[in-house]
Amino acid sequence: MTSSHSTRFWLLRPFGERTTQLFLGVLLAALALVTVLHVALPQGHALHVNAYTVNLFGKYLSYALLAVAVDLVWGYLGILSLGHGAFFALGGYAMGMYLMRQIGDRGTYGHPVLPDFMVFLNWESLPWYWQGFDMAWFAFAMVLLAPGLLALVFGFLAFRSRVTGVYLSIITQALTFALMLAFFRNEMGFGGNNGLTDFREILGFNLRSSDTRLGLFLASGVALALGYLLCRAIVTSKLGRVCVATRDAEARTRFLGYRVERFQLFVFVVSAMLAGVAGALYVPQVGIINPSEFSPLFSIEIVLWVALGGRATLYGAVIGAILVNYAKTVFTGVMPDAWLFALGGLFVLVTVLLPKGVAGLFAHLRRRHVTQPQEASA
Amino acid sequence: MSFLQEIKSRDRVFDFLAPQSSRVDVRHGPILYLEDVSVSFDGFKAINKLNLTIDDGELRCIIGPNGAGKTTMMDIITGKTRPNEGSVWFGSRHNLLHMNEPEIASLGIGRKFQKPTVFEALSVFENLELAMAADKRILATLTARMTGEIQDHIDEVLVLIGLTALRHRPAGILSHGQKQWLEIGMLLMQRPRLLLVDEPVAGMTEQEMERTAELLTSLAGQQSVVVVEHDMGFVRSIARKVTVLHQGSVLAEGSMDQVSNDPKVIEVYLGADEEVA
């Protein structure tokens, strides 16, 4: 466990770490490379990155941010959330509502205010909770506030009652399942089964143009970098050490005078907000948000990414998310039926051979390089 | 005008209205004072008219057979168990029976339990850092910086518990004895006035016991230390004054030689223990 007991301001602390410097370097280089290959090289060139691929990478990056959010609560606080898809989806819906309102009167039914599905359901006027989503600042604030508020209420009740371990995992699972059922209902006013789609533009930029897609890809990359830095700053602070202490010996931490449930709540809410941001970046890139994002299976899949990449490293979560989703793209293209078997097999292999995930493999190799052999085996 | 204010401020007239000072008043000598304390669980008298006085800076060993009430006595001092009768004072100002566990802990009474619990994933240094008396709210913890003063305090404790060389290693790799010392170090980070130590050498090697004896004797003077222990050899090596508990009250008190020659003590406790005879 590396820790900088620096006297620096807490938000700046991660910049002094080798791992963070390396991570940011690789991420920014990758963003720059994709941009150059996409913009500078002509279409048809062997190394040209087309708009479809840029869009795909952007999706991976938003998944990576989601994985970082899950790793923050699971890796460092020991809370295995099997419902983080709910926060992701809420952020996505907040963004989706903004994008729906941007369509204006260009929908199929041409109604100036109401989205198509409301006209179809014969609704007279906009429900109160759709008000304000025509303004970008309000919608973007909701991307943070909606998941944050849900996490605050849910976490307050759960942590105050000292629900932890497998019981907490089960109720997070129930939370996302309940939300999925609710969002499937047309009466909820979120498009029911079909969700929200047919988006046209974001902040005035046409969503179908390849420049906008590149912009969204870069925005996802920057969001990932900032999210990573924020999590890293939290983890390297004294609060991060209280989290690890809570994870390993909750009662002892409480005995030292820390109000453990408040620390859990704080980190849980931060994580939920990050997941919301990831959802908001995901939706304009895939062009749709529907209740399937609330599905318990998706939330479990996120946990798999983190486990594959390596818990409690943050960068491992990023590697895991990108690796698994890239594999998913390839596999579902080649053999759609075999994907779930491949995912399951991958998970079994990693658990057996690499209990600390891909990041654990990196750390092991690095230690071998640096220290004497007898210490490396310890 | 100021004279009027002085008259009007009632806490100067009525002593009990004065804001409770957190300073422990030890001008009269004792830091801990138990008088006629009794507690019973379902009719069983775990503590029976116990009288005990610990002086400021003293190192006291408490021995006694199983069920003599040693742990219950610790529970009463730390506020975990309430006695049925009697009084418990910390210094001559603080009535511990009117305070709850966290309040008593913040007064400066630290307790080490039998089984050591340290944070294994964190380094020795970080364990001490978390244990330090500080503002433990979320924002203060998030923005906390390492100052020279804190660093010095941690270094000081590291020297005391003999773990300076291992400061940056995870606490999980420490031996059983080292974990016990780290735990004592974590108590010291809270700058306690009185340390209650429950069976510190259980499961330790001879060398570790010697080191622990040195550590505890070096702590006495700065703070008062009360040690509950079964191991007679260990008690002999550290104790200046020993209290023998039996059936919830004090059977004998004095130097190790005095109590081990006391016929009553030999009869109920030491007689069976060949190590002492």
Q: The biggest beta sheet of chain B, please?
A: 6 strands, mixed
According to CATH, what is the topology of chain B? Rossmann fold
Question: Mean pLDDT across all residues of chain A, rounded?
Answer: 91
Strand content of chain A: under 5%
Low-confidence stretches of chain A: 372-378
Percent helix among the residues of chain B? 25-40%
CATH architecture of chain B: 3-Layer(aba) Sandwich
Mean pLDDT of chain B: 85
CATH homologous superfamily title of chain B: P-loop containing nucleotide triphosphate hydrolases
Order of helices and strands of chain A: HHHHHHEEEHHHHEHHHHH
Q: Give the neighbour order of strands across the main sheet of chain B.
A: 6-7-8-3-9-10
Poorly predicted ranges of chain B (pLDDT <50, ≥5 residues)? none
Task: State the oligomer.
Answer: heterodimer
Number of domains of chain B: 1
State the distance separating the first and last CA atoms of chain A.
15 Å
Q: How much strand of chain B? A: 15-25%
Task: Please report the two chains with the greatest interface, counting residues with C-beta closer than 8 angstroms to the partner's C-beta.
Answer: A-B, 28 and 27 residues
Overview of the structural elements:
The complex is a heterodimer of chains A (378) and B (277). Chain A is mainly α. Chain A is built from 15 helices and four strands. Chain A is 67% helix and 2% strand. Chain A has a two-stranded antiparallel ribbon with strand order 1-4. Chain A has a two-stranded antiparallel sheet with strand order 2-3. Chain A is globular, with a radius of gyration of 21 Å. The two termini of chain A are 15 Å apart. Chain B is globular, with a radius of gyration of 21 Å. Chain B has one domain: Rossmann fold (3-Layer(aba) Sandwich), CATH 3.40.50. The longest helix of chain B has 14 residues, at 148-161. The model of chain B has no long low-confidence stretch (mean pLDDT 85). The termini of chain B are far apart. In chain B, the strands form two sheets. Chain B has a six-stranded mixed beta sheet, with helices on both faces. Chain B has a four-stranded antiparallel beta sheet with strand order 2-1-4-5, with helices on one face. The chains are: A mainly alpha (378), B alpha/beta (277). Chain A binds chain B through residues 1, 3, 5-10, 234, 237-239, 241-242, 244-245, 247-249, 252-253, 256-259, 262-263, 266, and chain B through 102, 105-106, 117, 119-123, 125-126, 129-131, 136-138, 141-147, 151, 170, 186. Chain B: Residues 32-272 form the ABC transporter domain. Chain B: InterPro entries: AAA+_ATPase (IPR003593), ABC_AA/LPS_Transport (IPR051120), ABC_transporter-like_ATP-bd (IPR003439), ABC_transptr_urea_ATP-bd_UrtD (IPR017781), BCA_ABC_TP_C (IPR032823), P-loop_NTPase (IPR027417). Chain B: This is Urea ABC transporter ATP-binding protein UrtD. Chain B: It comes from Vreelandella malpeensis.
